Amino acid sequence: MNEHLIIPENIKEILNNVENISLSLAELPLQEHPKLPQFQRSIRVLDIDAKSEQQFISFRYKQILKDKETGEDINISLPSPEWVIYKDTWSYLRDGDNHLIELPVAEPEGNMNTDLVKVPSYQYMLWLLKNNKAGFTELLASYLDEFVEKHKENLDALS
User: What's the whole-model pTM score?
Assistant: First the structure.
């Protein structure tokens, strides 16, 4: 494609990296599988289906196990519960250091004097991306943490 150009080494390196990039959207590390600790485990995000008007995002992914010594993918089928963010899904607002924001309650009841600030997840994701508050993989990692926490038992099951 660029054979007619005199390409300096630093640009050749970039072109090589572009040509050899993994076609998955992201691969994010997970804790070791409790029954398969001899392997590294990750989530490989394959597709994202986002519907702006419906405020809906669906992630298609696979759990990946890799041999710790060779780095080779191990062909063991692991569960992949549905990973979806709906219009009514909410997240906690975080500050610039990624800490949850907790504020005083307007009318305290019992011993509840503070609470975490909640925001609609879909809109929050867009706001973070559009305002350069989080990079794509950083954003996925943050939402993956919440997803894993919620579905840990199912993700850790062996088919």
Answer: 0.78
